[in-house]
From TrEMBL:
Gene3D superfamilies: Nucleoside phosphorylase domain (3.40.50.1580). One of its GO terms (biological process) is nucleoside metabolic process. One of its GO terms (molecular function) is methylthioadenosine nucleosidase activity. It comes from the Eukaryota. Pfam families: PNP_UDP_1. Residues 29-145 form the Nucleoside phosphorylase domain. This is 5'-methylthioadenosine/S-adenosylhomocysteine nucleosidase 2 isoform X2. PANTHER family: 5'-METHYLTHIOADENOSINE NUCLEOSIDASE, 5'-METHYLTHIOADENOSINE/S-ADENOSYLHOMOCYSTEINE NUCLEOSIDASE 1. The gene is LOC105061156.
Length: 243
């Protein structure tokens, strides 16, 4: 009789090995960035498009979501937008908490990245342009004793003597205005978070902070965005258990 030719099974596409731990691969990433100046270079770099649908967030809020695919990741970048009364970026812990909460509820990310600029302490070795990956964060203006953190967060760009004592007690190398708020919400909702902070000014240096901050913002933002890109490249294809 006629023989049936044996057909080799089609080779299956190369697959990354299964994830250990809880078996999840990083797929959806949520980047929270407070300032437009910090956000736009990343929007361009990852070719993200602005969400014009308007159904993600409550009506009337200034929050802006950009999204797109990059390698194996669904990237969402959320910027809290400009304050409708003052016309400035909505920096600080209140906006950071709200947009983080609303974005996590709507997007169910596997991981949050809070990226931004920060003041650095030269006594701890920080220099302008350095980019820090902080794993521990704390608030410094709540007057509640809490465990030490490397990144200290408060709602002021300047530093009162009381803040300074709390920041020292936090053993912080850098100081920002959103990290601990994002960390708080990430903890509430059990989403892992990474903090990428680039130093624009030396808090314990000679120069006035607002001037030094504005002088270095653009150049340091380039270093920040490079670091965020490296983090994103590192994350693509990784399992949560590998981080
Ligand atoms: N972001 C950039 N510089 C900062 C500083 N000195 N304090 C808080 N946030 C900052």
């Amino acid at each position: 009789g006629s023989s049936i030719p044996e057909v080799a099974p089609a080779p299956s596409p190369a697959k990354a090995p299964a994830c250990g731990g809880d078996g999840r691969r990083v797929s959806t990433v949520l980047i929270i960035i407070a300032m437009q100046t910090e956000a736009l270079p990343l929007v361009n770099k990852f070719q993200l498009s602005e969400d014009t649908d308007g159904s993600l967030f409550p009506k009337g809020v200034p929050w802006v979501r950009y999204h797109g695919k990059y390698k194996e990741l669904d990237i969402n970048l959320v910027w809290p937008g400009k304050d409708s009364v003052l016309g400035v970026d909505s920096v600080g812990t209140v906006s950071a908490s709200l947009v983080t909460y609303a974005s996590v509820q709507a997007l169910k990310p596997d991981l949050i990245i809070n990226a931004g600029t920060a003041g650095g302490f030269k006594a701890k070795g920080a220099c302008v342009g350095d980019v820090y990956l902080a794993s521990d964060v704390a608030f410094h203006d709540r007057r509640i004793p809490i465990p030490v953190g490397k990144l200290s967060t408060g709602d002021s760009l300047d530093m009162s003597p009381q803040d300074e004592a709390a920041i020292l007690a936090n053993d912080a190398t850098i100081k920002d205005m959103e990290g601990a708020a994002v960390s708080y919400v990430a903890g509430l909702l059990s989403v892992p978070a990474i903090f990428v902070k680039a130093v624009t000014d030396i808090v314990d240096g000679e120069k006035p902070t607002p001037e030094e901050f504005l002088q270095n913002l653009i150049a340091v933002t380039a270093a920040l965005d490079q670091a965020v890109s490296q983090v994103i490249d590192f994350l693509s294809g990784k399992c949560l258990s590998e981080l």
